[in-house]
Design a protein that fits this description.
Length: 149
């Protein structure tokens, strides 16, 4: 025997309200998220951590040649650009599943004050770009020796 369920018109209104709130959050609270490279999957994922001497950044860029990666610092903005290139035969294949993303990527990060941009060093090994960004001498903690008289 079938059970009858009473229709709740306001229940559907709440669902619509939640959907609209989610849309507004995506577009206003995180602008660019819907059309961003992160949304399309073409990114270079990064890790940044602080050391005693500065910052270390590691970016995963598998399949990209080191000479095809552009790293620039303008003011306090670090930019990493490159492109994941698709194989020439890929267009001719009948894919059952394609999860790898191809295309240009550009990551821009605002660096904290006190980074000596003239001494940034870049290394590339096994598809990982590592940037070593030392702190400027003026912001490093100085140890002052106390002497007794």
């Amino acid at each position: 025997m079938a059970n009858l369920i009473q229709w709740e018109p306001f229940g559907e209104m709440v669902s619509l309200r939640d959907a609209m709130a989610g849309l507004m959050e995506e577009s206003f609270l995180r602008p660019g998220a819907l059309g961003s490279p992160e949304a399309s999957g073409v990114v270079a994922p990064i890790d940044i951590y602080e050391t005693d001497d500065g910052l270390e950044l590691k970016a995963a860029v598998p399949g990209v040649k080191p000479e095809e990666i552009e790293v620039t610092i303008t003011g306090d903005v670090l930019t990493i650009k490159g492109e994941y290139k698709q194989e020439e035969q890929a267009a001719k294949r009948n894919y059952l599943r394609q999860e790898r993303r191809f295309g240009s990527f550009c990551r821009q990060l605002t660096l904290p004050p006190g980074i000596d941009s003239g001494k940034v060093h870049a290394d590339f090994e096994n598809g990982v770009l590592t940037l070593t960004m030392p702190k400027a001498e003026s912001v490093k903690p100085k140890s002052i020796r106390v002497t007794a008289k």
